[in-house]
Amino acid sequence: MITKNILTLPKNDNTCGWIKQLPLRRGQPPLSGKQQADWVVLGAGYTGLATARQLSILHPQARIILLEGQNAGEGSSGRNSGFLVDSILNEGHFSASGLAEYRKKYEIKHAGVLAVRQLVTELGIDCDLEASGKYHCTALKSNEKKLKNFSKLLTELELKHKIIEGEELHQRLGSSYYRMGLWTEGGIMLQPAKLARGMVENLPEQVELFENTPVLNWRKLSNSGGYQLSTPSGQVTCEKLIVTVNGFMASCGVKTNRTFPLTLTAGLTRPLTDEEDEAIGRPAAWGVLSA
Ligand SMILES: Cc1cc2nc3c(=O)[nH]c(=O)nc-3n(C[C@H](O)[C@H](O)[C@H](O)COP(=O)(O)OP(=O)(O)OC[C@H]3O[C@@H](n4cnc5c(N)ncnc54)[C@H](O)[C@@H]3O)c2cc1C
């Protein structure tokens, strides 16, 4: 029987600007003692929170335990840039198969965006959602071709978009930094930590969340076919285990040759003052992605 030992994270550093905007929340206590469940979901980011919610719909009688090593929803899910995108910049897949492949991926992402919108509405989550589309912009002449090719692709797929340059771009963004932008209608901006917090606070009653409960190791039980997971002050045995730990997949001994951690950083500035907003022409909310 093989036991997978897991490298766990240090304590949350509490420096995320998005999370600092939220009211303080008393987390759920860590798991203690020996527990038995039908399902364990390991990791409470967007993926784990959504998985646990969906399991409760599919298996209304099951005991579902959600384990989180830190505070639920405060990993990448509470710290990202808040773009929900359905199309991604592509310099042109013009072969029939390339276009079909792109369309398929677009449809999956589009369904994801709709699912988030539906969840936000259904649960009444206030997460500053702005369905303002998104911009792909460049300050370099050499990148303009990329945007023009992307525009051709979007035209083939009949997706609403527009290439914007010069004064119009300046006015829309309140900045003359970029030379060219491509705006797509599909795309939502939101405050990511508010979305994650809303998903945590609206978990179905059937889902039992244990926070500050890093899983230190797990093993497959040869007799029952289930799993046993150990945490600092408890143990849980379950029939089915779903691992939703994002970049920690490999360190959990899952798909070790298929996943790797990727580190991204982002910064949050102070809000503009009223005078500053006035000086740049009070543009509507926007999000720019690089070309
Ligand atoms: C700076 C930045 C900007 C980004 N911008 C965007 C963007 O604009 N749009 C977009 O779509 N995506 C963006 N992303 C990516 C996006 O944030 C992630 O893809 C998404 O949050 C992943 O969610 P998840 O639930 O899969 O993983 P996470 O949110 O990482 O959740 C995994 C959870 O597992 C827990 N865990 C790990 N190991 C253990 C263990 N042993 N025991 C218990 N718990 C454990 C972690 O504590 C964590 O809470 C960005 C990411 C970053 C970092």
**Helical residue percent band:** 25-40%
Sheet having the most strands: 7 strands, mixed
**What separation lies between the terminal Cα atoms?**
49 Å
The percent range for strand residues is: 15-25%
Ranges where pLDDT stays below 50 over 5 or more residues in a row are: none
Count the beta strands: 13
The residue-averaged pLDDT reads 93
Describe this structure in words.
The mean pLDDT is 93. The chain contains seven helices and 13 strands. It has two domains: 30-78 and 193-252, FAD/NAD(P)-binding domain; 83-190 and 266-290, no CATH class. It has helices at 17-20, 46-58, 96-123, 144-156, 166-173, 192-201, 274-279, and strands at 3-5, 33-42, 64-67, 83-84, 134-138, 161-165, 180-184, 188-189, 207-210, 217-220, 227-231, 234-243, 288-290. The longest helix is centred in the middle third of the chain and has 28 residues, at 96-123. The termini are far apart. It binds flavin-adenine dinucleotide. Residues 6, 8-9, 42-48, 67-70, 75-77, 79-83, 214-215, 244-246, 248, 252, 264-266 line the site of flavin-adenine dinucleotide.
In short:
With 291 residues, this protein is α/β, with parallel strands linked by helices. 28% of the residues lie in helices and 21% in strands. The protein is built from 7 helices and 13 strands.
